[in-house]
């Protein structure tokens, strides 16, 4: 008899656990479905606003966190996110397009299109977005190789890689013909500059020399002997 | 003709190049978010450099500065760094107005009174350039979004001239 009671108690406990578990599973399924719904909604909204994942601009859908928010809060937040990301995407694309167009202009002005397969691919890409993507992916290849050379501490290889990809490198010169280093590609900072591509620049040797001989000061001098 | 001119200079000026030490330092921004984002955010990556001579050397270190707005995170990977510095001796001619014979009634006994005297000066050429991949993550209302930039050949370069440790 005692055993019988014990058995019933055990069965009761087991069924309780089962019920509890199935509740959790159901709840988890609900949450999962809900989450999928939100993500799909966000994805659709972003797409209809022209924001899409590229190799340089990605919305990380796997790590979205909507926890602790009510349905209406989440929906309102998605609206705000779409608005901000759209602005962010457009500003970013404009920045990238400026750079790509600068390169394309140099290629066209100097009739370099047949010199590189990459130039052909870039110039003939049908849309601006594709041009940006092609250029970014080429840069990524270049920077990956540079990164590997750096890991190995191989400076010679690093220089070799930089020469190999010199068809990507834009050079800027001031009105005196001196090479200048520029920080970004926002056109407003680049007034009166002329551009060329490193690989196809004929005057590179002449102009990388020190501007010393062009300067004059109140003190007279002549160039001395190089020590190093 | 130029060869004769040079010979003449170095014949009359045979002192060894032994300049007074000089140094200078500065910093330069390599990457800033101001131009990249519609909302205010003053994060930047920069380089501090320190150049000293004679027989020039350059030391650099990269730094991050500014405050990223909440939800923004930045990181960068250094892909290439080129630093160079050279020290070049220069012959300068300075106006040698003698202080011990200031009176025009009593001219100095050296023939080229108030003439030009040669001396060594130095020119320091310096350059520090960087290749960076910058990762920018914005997490807003729980949604993360990442952007990458390849920043090529940014940094600083220039030349300064020194005489007796002072820039001129």
Give your account of this protein's structure.
The complex is a heterodimer of chains A (228) and B (168). By secondary structure, chain A is mainly α. Helix content of chain A is 58%, strand content 7%. Chain A has 6 helices and 5 strands. Chain A has helices at residues 2-48, 71-109, 117-124, 128-151, 155-164, 204-208; strands spanning 57-59, 170-173, 179-180, 194-197, 220-223. A 3-stranded antiparallel β-sheet of chain A has the order 3-2-4, with helices on one face. Chain A is elongated and about 100 Å long. Chain A starts with a helix and ends in a 5-residue tail after the last strand. Residues 206-228 of chain A have low confidence and may be disordered. Chain B has 168 residues and is mainly β. A 4-stranded antiparallel β-sheet of chain B has the order 4-5-6-7, with no helix packed on it. Chain B has a 3-stranded antiparallel β-sheet with strand order 1-2-3, with no helix packed on it. In chain B, β6 (143-163) and β7 (166-167) form a beta hairpin. Chain B is elongated. The two termini of chain B are 29 Å apart. Classes of the chains: A mainly alpha (228), B mainly beta (168). At the A-B interface, β1, α2, α4 and β5 of A face β1, β4, β5 and β6 of B.
Features:
heterodimer; A: about 230 residues; mainly alpha; about 5% strand; disordered C terminus; B: about 170 residues; mainly beta; four-stranded antiparallel β-sheet; three-stranded antiparallel β-sheet; about 60% strand; Lipoprotein (chain A); signal (chain A)
